Amino acid sequence: MMYIRSVVTWMFKILMWVVIASMAWVTYSCDEFCEESNRTAVVVNFFSSENDASMTVNVTIKGIENDSTLYQQGGRMQVLLPVNPAADMMSFSINNANDTLYADTITIRYTRQIGFISSECGCVTFAEIQDVSKQTENSISDIIVTNHKVTTVSYRENVINAENIRIYY
What we know:
By secondary structure, this protein is α+β, with helices and mostly antiparallel strands. It is 17% helix and 43% strand. The model has no long low-confidence stretch (mean pLDDT 81).
């Protein structure tokens, strides 16, 4: 009886050490969750063509190919237009309600390059802007590419993002 008790005690201790070791392994082997977006965006700022000053516009922006509304009439100085990782161009309808009832259509052509963020976040599609054109002449007077490299991945509020395009009204 004494022998069985010591064997059971010994097996219980081994089992406890296995459970503790397993819990430690599970706890420390798990990757952390990704806290960044793995989508890039073209950063667009709005400017006045009269005095080259940054301005707030009341815009509605819709995607042409996917028919989605990105921004719905709100005063904005900056917008983020998401890069399509499966295409080399994207088109948007931009309506400045302060200026006109008619929307302008712009097309952004770019080349894509895959970049690695981390094992938690995976890969991201960076872009290099090749050309920006407008198909209509309603309220946008000019479009200038200020930075061809699209690397913005943060969609958090109140984050200053590197400008890619200036739209002048």
